[in-house]
Design brief:
Number of domains: 2
Structural class: alpha/beta
Low-confidence stretches: 491-548, 556-568
Radius of gyration: 24 Å
CATH superfamily of the largest domain: FAD/NAD(P)-binding domain
CATH architecture of the largest domain: 3-Layer(bba) Sandwich
CATH topology of the largest domain: FAD/NAD(P)-binding domain
Number of helices: 13
Strand content: 15-25%
Oligomer: single chain
Length: about 575
């Protein structure tokens, strides 16, 4: 076959959608349409604008490798800065012109070897490849509480924040104790007349400092952009060698250090012994998504703040009534209750050849081979899909690694090796079985209620180290895919890799450091290595702090005597 000029539909103009458009163009694909249901790009950073919203991944790591930002104000960036960064990158790389705003994809049908796209505006488009970049955090989860619609004041979800909601001098109730609630408490406690935090489950809190970058540091970044690349690589390495190794082995030394840091933060920060015990979780640190905050404990101890641990009985026009009979009178009710993380691109319907429906495949729970593709749904790929690395990792870095993988599959379509490609059911089932078994050894499976858990109580996240994720994403195992050429299904040799095409990498100005996963297992061996349990070997972190969320290395600032490009 001759080289094909492929066309693409990218669903979602958030971080992953912007990345997809840029990288497709970088590799010579020009027929790209981004569909965005909202009227602006940005994804979760567009939708989450509540007071105090910020990223709990260091700024240098929460950036595209090919677009370092020298203007971050803090080590951990506020949400508005991240949105501004995404807007600037999209504008610089000409992404905005290809986005169809206010147009939601409602259905995708694979007919005659191509995807037929239907949108909320009635459009019908035909493309070769679909990339679902819808992300995870875009369907707000609403609590099932009696009377929730009867409250006479303002009710607002943190993911649908209304800047016109008054806070100063008001009586504010916050339901939830995840990252959003923690950030709000720390931000507004001294602005309100009364703040009630309704806690169902206490949270472990990592005391991560968030200093501002100095003018000198930002000047150094501007004069030598490679400093940002080096900082990105160093922090990524700390995450990979410390935090990711710790959480996937519940009995690791790294987990012991994380728990010790969280416990010391609670003991040292909360002076009232009664309040301290009410804030003490009864599960292991990092079993839930680890909350990062340097000032939550100060906020909840503010004279205006009250921690409410009695269960909510119902919501009334005047406020929240707890089961002890007390009415907590409120002016504003904030729902910091998170997201429905099992939805992904749904309710969009996806129908593959022979009528295979995604809604039926995902009837019990969402699954995907390597978190990227689904059997029976060819030429359809996901970024940050089911069972990928989540938690306190950079989803930008995750998406870049996934795109390296996807591009290699797309190249087979481009150069005529095949017309359709999707994972085999056997490979997908084997991956899922191995993943579920490995998940039992992670800290997420140690006995807490968490959005990590699926309907079986099994952590739905990637249960191996981040090093291993990098290795697996470096190159697909084509033998795990059903490859169709015209009307012929091709059978590839067991263990075959994609050597017919050059390996593709997402463009970066700095090469990634780090060796092979200590397990030494490639994707092709995922379910084939005799006696392998799916759990990584324990390894000591290089430094105690590396086992926690990493402290960002301070950049070396050039001195006046040092010449250009030289640092102290």
């Amino acid at each position: 076959m001759d080289r094909r000029d492929l066309s693409f539909a990218v669903i979602g103009a958030g971080m992953s959608g912007v990345l997809s458009s840029i990288q497709l163009r970088e590799h010579g694909y020009n027929d790209i349409t981004l569909y965005e249901k909202a009227d602006h790009l940005g994804g979760t950073w567009r939708e989450n604008t509540y007071p105090g919203v910020a990223c709990d991944v260091p700024s240098a790591l929460y950036s595209y490798s090919f677009a370092p930002n020298t203007e971050w104000s803090h080590r951990f960036s506020p949400g508005a800065e991240i949105l501004g960064y995404l807007e600037d990158v999209a504008e610089t790389h000409g992404v905005v012109d290809s986005i169809r705003f206010g147009e939601e994809v409602v259905r995708c049908d694979f007919l005659d070897g191509r995807w037929h796209i239907q949108t909320s505006l009635g459009a019908h488009d035909v493309v070769d490849v679909v990339i679902a970049a819808t992300g995870v955090l875009h369907h707000p989860s609403l609590p099932d509480i009696e009377g929730i619609g009867t409250f006479a004041g303002r009710t607002v979800h943190t993911a649908r924040w209304d800047a016109m909601v008054p806070l100063d001098g008001q009586r504010i109730g916050i339901i939830g104790t995840g990252s959003s609630a923690i950030q709000m408490v720390a931000t507004i406690a001294d602005r309100v007349e009364k703040l009630c935090l309704f806690q169902r489950t206490a949270q472990w809190v990592m005391p991560q400092e968030n200093p501002a970058y100095t003018d000198e540091e930002r000047d150094a970044f501007r004069s030598d952009p490679t400093m940002m690349h080096r900082l990105h690589e160093e922090i990524s390495e700390l995450f990979a060698n410390g935090f990711s190794n710790a959480v996937v082995d519940a009995e690791s030394e790294g987990m012991r250090l994380i728990e010790a840091a969280c416990l010391a933060n609670l003991e040292d920060s909360v002076t009232d012994p009664v309040l301290r015990e009410r804030l003490r979780p009864d599960y292991r640190a990092a079993c839930k998504r680890l909350v990062v905050s340097p000032d939550f404990y100060a906020g909840i101890q503010h004279p205006n703040s009250e921690l409410v641990t009695d269960s909510i009985g119902r919501i009334e026009p005047g406020g929240v009534r707890t089961v002890d009979g007390r009415l907590h009178e409120l002016d504003v009710l904030v729902l910091a209750t998170g997201f429905r993380v099992d939805r992904f691109m749904r309710p969009m319907e996806v129908v593959g050849p022979f009528g295979v429906k995604l809604s039926e495949l995902w009837d019990k729970r969402p699954t995907a081979y390597m978190s990227i593709s689904i059997p029976g749904i060819p030429n359809f790929f996901m970024l940050n899909g089911p069972n990928g690395p989540v938690g306190n990792f950079s989803l930008i870095e995750v998406a870049e690694l996934q795109f390296t993988y996807i591009l290699q599959l797309v190249e087979r379509l481009r150069f005529g090796d095949c017309t359709q490609i999707s994972p085999t059911p056997d490979a997908t089932e084997a991956f899922e079985a191995t993943r579920v078994e490995a998940a039992k050894g992670t800290v997420w499976a140690t006995g807490c209620r968490s959005w990590y858990l699926d309907d079986r109580g099994v952590p739905a996240a990637w249960p191996w180290t981040f090093q291993r994720f990098r290795e697996v994403m470096a190159e697909p195992v084509i033998a795990d895919y059903e490859v169709v050429s015209g009307s012929r299904r091709l059978t590839l040799p067991h263990g075959a890799r994609g050597q017919a095409r050059p390996r593709i990498r997402v463009r970066s100005a700095a090469p990634r450091r780090g060796g092979r996963d200590p397990v030494g297992v490639s994707a092709g061996c995922l379910n084939r290595r005799p006696g392998w349990s799916g759990r990584p070997r324990r390894r000591e972190p290089p430094h105690p702090r590396a086992a926690c969320l990493p402290r960002e290395p301070r950049p070396a600032i050039p001195t006046a005597r040092a010449g250009p490009g030289r640092s102290r």
